[in-house]
Amino acid sequence: MVGLVCLASAWSLGGAAAQAAESNATQAAERPENAMCLGCHGNEGFAMPGADGKPRPLHVNKDKFGKSVHGKRACVECHKDINEIPHQNIGKHKVSCVQCHETLWETAQKENKTQEFAKLGAVVKQIDKYMHSIHARPNREDQSRTNATCYNCHDAHYVYPVGSTVRAEWRLDIPNICGKCHSKEREEYVKSVHGDEVIWKHNPKAAICSDCHTTHDIDSPEMASIRLVITKNCGNCHKESYKSYTGTYHGQVQTLGFAYTAKCFDCHGNHGIQRTHDPKSTVHPDNRLNTCQKCHVGATAGFVTFEPHGNTRDYDRYPFMWIASKFMIALLFGVFAFFWTHSALWFYREYRERAQRKSRPHVVTDELLPEQGKHFQRFRPLWRLAHLVFAISVMMLVLTGMAVLFAEAAWAKAIINAFGSPKITAIVHRTSATIMLGIFFAHLVYLGFRINWKTFQWFGPNSLVPSWQDFRDFIAMFKWFFGHGPRPAFDRWTYWEKFDYWAVFWGMAIIGGSGFMLWFPNLTASLLPGWAFNVATLVHGEEAILAAVFLFTVHFFNNHFRPDKHPPPDLVMFTGAVSLEEFKREHTLEYNRLVASGELEKYLVDAPSRPMTLGSRILGITLIVIGLILLALVLIGFMGSMTANG
After folding, report:
1. Within its chain, how far is the Cα of 439 from the centroid?
2. pLDDT per residue as tens digits for the range 231-271
3. pLDDT of 462 strictly over 60
4. Do 341 and 574 contact (CB within 8 A), yes or no?
5. To 5 degrees, how large is the angle CA 402–CA 404–CA 410?
6. Which domains does the chain have, with CATH numbers?
7. Closest among 295, 286, 288, 238 to 261, alpha carbons compared
8. For residues 292 and 304, what is the distance between their CA atoms, to the nearest angstrom?
9. What's the pLDDT tens digit per position in 477-498?
10. Which sign, positive or negative, has the C-alpha torsion 196, 199, 201, 205?
């Protein structure tokens, strides 16, 4: 009955339009207005038989349509085939949302109105994303249609502006809209913590399907790129949890753009997510080990107490991380505050004395050089080779380790991509660590067999064990810095060389020990609680920063960048020999002792050949440049990390 009434109304409106056309040629050319269309479609319950013979609802609520983004547009702008009322071929007219929006945008571009119609441009971008999505691909069962079109998700007559009340209501209904096709997923979602908030509590801020899967560029979650996007989308609501997640190795790999490590949904589930304290939750303490074992097959009970969202700010919840963090901050601040000050004062004093053209050595001795032109052999070939391999392995560790630690930095992604993936980078990192530790332990074995422990002098001139003389030299050095005394004379090992030597032991224990724990998580978890992983990760990274920055600033300065070492680099660790003049100046007490005992001759060698010197200089400069580049990358990454963390 309603259909017949509307049809009569349409004929009446159509007749009026025809009469107007006879009196005005311009009006005759006009297409039907919205009021004419609503003469039928504005009646509630209006329907017509569809292609399948079943009634097809065609009612349009005038007020709701007026509030939509299309409310000011004419019906015939979308329904282009409608030229008259009543219209023919009812049910066969196809509306193309894509074509309509793209045509309007092309017109805006031609008329230079892109700024005025910026929102339309944004819609066209969304359309482009949709055209590449899984929804725009042909349906497996019916290749003649796509998986989902615009109007399967949007009701074309009721698309509301962002921020409007009616749009918020539409948003809450999205799970039901998606559920028309994805019924199984909806069933799980309804029972989840997100579904409870949306479906039953009508919480407009709770997550709906499109918050996780995105809106128009939806694709299979089996794809690595989509897994990355979904994980990042979790952080739009759970900012603190996502921030702490990116601080773990799982999250760092995610940030680098690789999807093989655990994502939020791997631990928490996807459509059926429950609160952590819910016994059905996959991360409930009773279920957590089984969840970990999905990836870590041999995971032990220690994994359960790992804190995937631990941070260094909350002492009450994460006391061990808080303590470790504060200790490492104090260590970094203390080491750099002292040694950078030491280096700055040293540079100032040596620069002043060179500027004053003091040609004499800082420490004058009365002994004449026994053989002019000869060099003193300070390091034998095996030690030089060990130093070179050790240095290269450390630089490779810094490169590969910092690229993961500062995963958010642009340079980090470039480094990882150059290696191929974090997996390959990890292999290189662990190989370099094995080489470095191998050299360290080989050194210990060598000392164990070569030193006569019965006659060894723990605090003698040849010992690297710190003594009271080192403390006196340290005081004398600072007096010289401030011009209150002469530069002290040193024996075979200076106090800063001893520090460098023993710092390696500390570094091997902290970096090597924590690295071993992270390398073999199952073994670690079988012996230690899970929070040990959090502490190991923290100190491994912080100590690595300390070691890298110390090596490429303080160590480089002490050995290469002092004014007395001009021009850099110092070649002694490459050639093994140093001129007698320099040896006499830098290690005066050892020189005097060897001259007095007649043993100096045993250590005299010919000056390195020209090719040896040139090759050593090229190698030294190359390593220094690489070290300075690594230093720059570390500092950029560190500053970026500090900025990101507030």
Report:
1. 32
2. 999 999 999 999 999 999 999 999 999 999 999 999 999 99
3. yes
4. no
5. 85
6. 1-94 (no CATH), 222-299 (no CATH), 319-346+367-451+493-644 (1.20.950.20)
7. 295
8. 8
9. 999 999 999 999 999 999 999 9
10. positive
Looking at the DSSP bridge assignments, the partners of residue 168 are none
Rounded distance between C-alpha atoms, residue 523 and residue 525, angstroms? 6
| Cα 63 to Cα 47, 67, 69, 232, distances in angstroms | 19, 7, 12, 39
Looking at residue 298, its pLDDT comes to: 87
Kindly list the distances between the CA atom of residue 442 and the CA atoms of 436, 448, 476, in Å, as whole numbers in the listed order: 10, 10, 36
Query: pLDDT at residue 442 above 80?
Result: yes
- Amino acid identity, position 643: T
Residue 14 in this model has a pLDDT that exceeds 90: no
Whether pLDDT at 587 is above 90: yes
Lowest mean pLDDT among 77-81, 591-595, 633-637: 77-81
Q: Assign 614 to helix, strand or coil.
A: helix
208-236 confidence digits (pLDDT tens): 999 999 999 999 999 999 999 999 999 99
Strand partners, 464: none
Q: Tell me the three state secondary structure of residue 56.
A: strand
The amino acid present at 61, given as its one-letter code, is N
d(CA 228, CA 213) in angstroms, rounded, equals 11
Alpha carbon dihedral 423, 426, 427, 433, in 10-degree steps, equals 180
Rounded mean pLDDT of the chain?
Answer: 87
486-491-496-502 Cα dihedral, nearest 10 degrees: -160
- Measured N-to-C along each axis, helices 319-355 and 468-481 cross at an angle, to the nearest 10 degrees, of 60
* Cα separation, 469 vs 459, whole angstroms: 9
Return the biggest CA–CA distance within the chain.
Answer: 129
Q: Nearest Cα to 60, choosing from 40, 31, 79, 33?
A: 40
The Cα 267–Cα 254 span in angstroms is: 14
Task: Quote the DSSP letter at residue 270.
Answer: S
Half-sphere exposure of 442 (CA within 13 A, CB side): 13
Is residue 565 within 8 A of residue 339, CB to CB? The reply is no
Q: What's the CA gap between 572 and 578, in Å, rounded?
A: 6
**Can you give the length of the chain in residues?**
646
pLDDT range class, residue 92, cuts 50, 70, 90: low
pTM of the full structure: 0.83
* The two three-digit tokens of residue 227, written as one number: 């897994």
